């Protein structure tokens, strides 16, 4: 679609630049929708051809989405030493991801062209460019062209601060101790070496990961303000610390989950839920929604454990085996999204040898478990009354989706800022316990059974976690309330503040508490 369409009614133009990974594209599109819904501005999402095709597949032609413009940034993966047609972290082995990260810098010239074209067609530059935190290269480029640069981290405040501070300062390198302090955090929030992914644990400023993150994150610190996909009231410590660290406005505009998930009773029919689900992720689930709902309907409220490790992660064969044994012996109902374990072709077929002999038949026959191949209708599972806890890798989108439904978390963080999200949910929010962390750690079936029993308890620790998760769900629903000034929730007010900032009357560098 031509981005200049509708410009005559335009009150201004906002350009958005997501990083090329599903965990970034999905919240960027959700933010674009939120901006379109709450403001009068034209929004253009710009990304590479295949990512654009993916975004288009998740959008509906018949609602607000038709008012979000898509713009293609030319990109040829083989120019950057990447396999043909590779424009996304999906299906890329971890050691090739830095090449994709570095290749994003080549988008500078096409982004400059886009901004210049908008400027000449609209007669003025865009109001701002909202760039992924990994695209620090865009900050100077868009400023030179007369517009403001806003950073979107796609994460929460606490996790974002931890991720940035750890990469920028590598504090674990100047000490031999297991637990160390991290700039920006108080002493009581010391971090543990095991919370660092191998790439950052072994970083030595000259490796490819450091060369990308240290440069790009630092450049993003110079933007005019940051968006977080979170809610002011659910992580007050995180927002306080992040604002002190950045010394910039930080707007909490989350949770960026589909709006029907934030209503008290979902009036959405199963059929349109399938559509909304597939539109949300652009993926076809490995099980029909009906089958999932039948399974959930056959169990009591809060009795089912949902297990998924996000869009990219998987576990090792030995841990998969221990997880299966522990699950079965706990006797608790579960839905488990299974994909090939580490060391196997991620696009390969299911192999029964990954699980204990007869496991699949037994749990299916007894209705204890539903095994879902590769991809599940996560939003529908989490929003069902029977789902009582989520064994999750603690990716931030999954966290927001789970807490928006009052579902507590059994954490198994693996990469990125997932361990920092888990740390906050354990220590500050009290609605998560960690089963284990990392892809290298050991777990045994006995411990799996014990932890599953703990989180599924109606009373005790599990019950307490569920109460806390329910309280957070309430805060999230309040945060997105629209209406007059007295009724507006904090996330809606934060969007108003962002608007005032880009329109130029409140750029004072202060914090943006609601
Ligand atoms: N997701 C899903 N079905 C699955 C696995 C993941 O719908 O079987 C969605 C999930 O709802 C979330 C996203 O994929 O919106 C995963 O994002 P997250 O930040 O949790 O993890 P990442 O994939 O970035 O590690």
UniProtKB/TrEMBL annotation:
Q: Keyword Thylakoid: yes or no?
A: no
Residues in a coiled coil are: none
Domain Glycosyltransferase N-terminal: residue ranges: 14-258
EC number from the UniProt entry: 2.4.1.-
Which keywords accompany this UniProt record?
Answer: Glycosyltransferase, Membrane, Transferase, Transmembrane, Transmembrane helix
Where does the sequence pass through the membrane?
12-32
Q: Pfam families attached here?
A: Glyco_transf_N, UDPGT
GO MF annotations for this entry? UDP-glucosyltransferase activity
Q: Which InterPro entries does this entry report, sorted A to Z?
A: Glyco_transf_N, UDP_glucos_trans, UDP_glycos_trans_CS
Q: Does the record's keyword annotation contain Transmembrane helix?
A: yes
Question: Record's family?
Answer: Belongs to the UDP-glycosyltransferase family.
Task: Indicate what this protein is called per its UniProt record.
Answer: Glycosyltransferase
Species for this entry: Eucalyptus grandis (Flooded gum)
